[in-house]
Write a structure and sequence with these properties.
Order of helices and strands: EEHEEE
CATH architecture: Roll
Shape: globular
Helix content: 10-25%
CATH superfamily: Beta-grasp domain
Distance between the termini: 41 Å
Strand content: 35-45%
Number of helices: 1
Number of strands: 5
Largest sheet: 5 strands, mixed
Strand order of the largest sheet: 2-1-5-3-4
CATH topology: Ubiquitin-like (UB roll)
């Protein structure tokens, strides 16, 4: 199944092909991102890492930065 992913702050979009029943964690593995370094959003609402992704969804992945 295909989903559309927008990476923020890079402001790039890409179409990703993942298996049916994949979770947010599976998606992050596919695009080589660590779950503790990003927030995945659907319609500006954060998704838990165990949430199942549906076909044709549009998600935003926001890079998180921390420091002191």
């Amino acid at each position: 199944m295909k989903i559309r992913v927008k990476l923020i702050p890079q402001n790039t979009s890409q179409e990703i092909d993942i298996k049916k029943g994949s979770t947010v964690t599976d998606l992050l593995r596919t695009i080589h991102r660590r779950p503790n370094s990003v927030i995945v959003l659907k319609n500006k609402t954060p998704l838990p890492v165990d949430d199942v992704i549906l076909d044709d969804q549009e998600l935003s992945i926001v890079q998180v930065a921390s420091g002191g």
